[in-house]
Automatic annotation (TrEMBL):
Residues 147-228 form the D-isomer specific 2-hydroxyacid dehydrogenase NAD-binding domain. Gene3D superfamilies: NAD(P)-binding Rossmann-like Domain (3.40.50.720). InterPro entries: D-isomer_DH_NAD-bd, DpaA_N, NAD(P)-bd_dom_sf. It comes from the Bacteria. SUPFAM superfamilies: NAD(P)-binding Rossmann-fold domains. GO terms for molecular function: NAD binding. Residues 6-108 form the Dipicolinate synthase subunit A N-terminal domain. This is Dipicolinate synthase.
Amino acid sequence: MNSSSFGILGGDRRQLALAESIAGDGFTVVTCGFENAEFLDTDIKKADLRRTAAMCGTLLLPLPVTIDGKNVKAEYAEYPIPLDETFVEALEGHRVYGGMLGRALAACPQLEDVPMEDYYAREDFALRNAAVTAEGALEFAMREYPGTLCGSRCLVAGFGRIGSQLAPRLRALGATVSVTVRRSETAALVEAAGCRPVPIEKLEDGGSYDIVFNTVPALIFTRHVLSAFPHGMLLIDLSSSPGGVDMPAAQKLGLRALHAFSLPAKVAPRAAGEIIKQTVYQMMRE
């Protein structure tokens, strides 16, 4: 086992970019689950699970590790990588890093015996990822909204990591921006960003918005709340799956409600891969 080599086990465009970036730093990179991928760096190796584990000291799992609760997320794989005893055995004795490890542990309880660290749970990762998500949200809105963001009336639900990055970006593009808040301190921050704070309890009063961005990972846009918003309004859900919007209700009420999950992977995979790399490198130093 080579302690200076990295094994990339499954993933999407972020992990493809991650593999190339780590290889560019001079490390040996072996990938598993990338049979249908083409790497710009020809030194990146492709191997099965057992061989990858045998060649590498550090193993990097995707974000999230699993979607279906049965296999590792691997968009470029020819064959599935099951979350089973063979997978657990391959991870033993390695430094293992992954994203949203809770889903994998729920799917495969045997993984509890394998020391793993979750890069998704770190604040430095979350803040960097939020900036990419906010930029992706702008691109998504420009594509889906028939008007321009300049002059549009926008509501951002939540002023956490993503909302606090998104609201000023919308404002800079000339949009009139309102933001839902729970505390007076948050309202002050929203005002300082040139936006209008809206108490969260007033959400059910609706408003004449062109676009609503939800960043809250809880069902706050219920049928009752949605019924107060204008017909034809665009609602973009940026929160984690399953989202914070009653999508069937939105459709029946004539609202355009769209999921925009995993935007970093879709709109900026290279930047997203760099964020994962920076976070893992920092975790290794610590």
